[in-house]
Amino acid sequence: MAGISGIGSGIDIKSIVTALVNAEKAPKEAQLSRLEKTATSRISALGGLRSALGELNGTLQNLSKLSAFQKQSLSSSNSGVLTATATGSVPPGSFSLQVQQLASSSKVTLQSVGGGTAATFNSGKLTISAGSTSFEVDVTAENNSLAGIRDAINSQGESSGVSASIVSDASGSRLILSSTKTGEGNDLRVAVSEDGTTLGQNSLKALSFLSAQSSVQLGSIAGGAAATFKAGTLTLGSGAASLDVTVNAEDSLADIRDAINTQGAAQGFSASIESVEGGAARLVVNSTSGEAVSVTSASPDTGLGDNSLSALNSVAQANAKTIDTAKSAKITVDGLAVTKSSNSISDVIDGVTLKLVSAQSADDIAAGKSVTLTVGQDRNLVRSNLQKFVDSYNKLIQTTHELTAVVQVGEGKPPVTGPMLGDSSIRNLLTGLRKELTQLGEEAGVRALAELGITTGKDGKLSLDGSKLDAALAGSNYDKVATYLAGDNGLMGRLAKVVKPYQETGGVLDQRQKGLQGTISSIDKQREALNLRIAKVEARLYDQYNAMDALVGRLQKTSESLTNQLASLPGFVRKDK
User: Fold this and answer.
1) For the chain, which residues make up each domain, given as ranges?
2) Which end of the chain is flanked by fewer CB atoms within 10 Å, N or C?
């Protein structure tokens, strides 16, 4: 609207036009609002229906597969000794097992040193191994403290399952190494080589630990196994065990090894030779005592020989020892002996994974006591799945009741109705489901849901009688239940076929939702068209009323002019008011 309206006539044109425009717009606007509200509520209702239908469909898909009735249940007569899970198809039956020994990993404590976590060591390299797995730790001026070596081991050994910690007591501070690798032959070993680049308060060889039997790695000798020594006596010690080995002038490293193996067998000592780069070799002395091994020489350097016998002195490791030895699990299955490196065993009974929890006592083993592992059909899972079916079906029924309900709110007042009252898709869906639920099965098997304890109430919802279902699942009836429920022609498969056209993408409900979304889009376009039309009506009315106002203004001016002219005529007498 341009300019000021109503000057000529004195009429409030703006109020009149606004009232006329609102009167023109209101019916269509109300119609579109009602349509939009209805479409929006139905979209929301479809969402709730699709959710309930999707939950039911998931249960039907699961129960329509024969595999849902082929799951095995495994029960152990003593879960404190072992448990088991099924990983494949296992025929029903039972197994008698004994757990004689659990698999364990290695844990060792190295020699203690003074100075706490700040104690330093000569630089070099630690080679830490657990069975066939090994890694190297470079000890340099930057990390040659006890704490630095611990951190380096934890960093380098993470992928190998080896970790280190520091423990301090009256004797000093030491590293404790732990491995996660179980099984015999996976004991922790620490081989040491020094490079002489950086000197510390302690020899790096103090951290050597070569086997769970307790070992010591002696210094490298040029010339290898053929290198000779001057005469003297080597004293070997490990815990309470002690051995003196006489070394004659010009005895070779190989001769000393053989003498230790011959004389020390009774006390648990043995020796071997390891090759070192550059043609050198070193002697490794072992003990079965579980305590650290020491080697000292007496009266050295007499007679002929290339090396002093003192070259074989070991670095003292008085308190280095094995805490836990790596062991393999030992069990029997129906009398057959089995040895495995892990407490989780999946390759003994086909389709079953055993989890060993604890070893039986020696008295129970001697008395022949065993753990019975029973394999059967997992009826609990079937019972749980059927309860899920009942719950999801009832949820669908409740949802449809709410969406199609008619609720009286008072005398003389219109009832409140659900957003999908009279909807044919809900009616057709429920009709299809009820038809399949009441269809009888084959004569030779289960014929109706009622035989499984599932019945329909007056409100259309299902209820489950657990004791009747248990009876139906017992014994030979189990296969009949599976035949009635599973497979393409089973009840669950037929119900799934009824649900599919409604639930699938592009199905009935999907098309309904797209149609309603199209209605909302159409409403938006109709509102745009309505606003455009109303704007034109408003402009037209302003044009008409402004034209009328202008005409009235001109007529008033004409009237005033005539009045003035008449007043000026002779004989005209103006009457004063």
Assistant:
1) 28-69+380-510, 74-101+332-377, 105-324
2) C
Give long-range contacts, CB 8 A cutoff, 24+ apart: 10-19.
Answer: 11/545, 11/549, 13/542, 13/545, 13/546, 13/549, 16/541, 16/545, 17/538, 17/541, 17/542, 17/545
The residue type at 53: L
Question: Residue 314 contacts by C-beta under 8 Å, 6 or more apart in sequence?
Answer: 216, 218, 285, 293, 294, 295, 296
- Helix (H), strand (E) at residue 402: helix 379-403
- Of 143-157, 179-193, 378-392, 562-576, the poorest mean pLDDT is in 562-576
Alpha carbon 543 to its chain centroid, in Å, reads 73
Do the beta carbons of residue 216 and residue 295 sit within 8 Å? yes
Q: What is the mean pLDDT of the chain?
A: 85
Listed as own residue / partner, the contacts of 481-484 with beta carbons closer than 8 Å and 24 or more positions apart are 481/69, 481/382, 481/446, 481/452, 482/66, 482/69, 482/70, 483/442, 483/445, 483/446, 484/441, 484/442, 484/445, 484/446, 484/447, 484/452
Number of other residues whose CB lies within 10 A of the CB of residue 74: 20
Check if the beta carbon of residue 481 is closer than 8 Å to that of residue 70. Answer: no
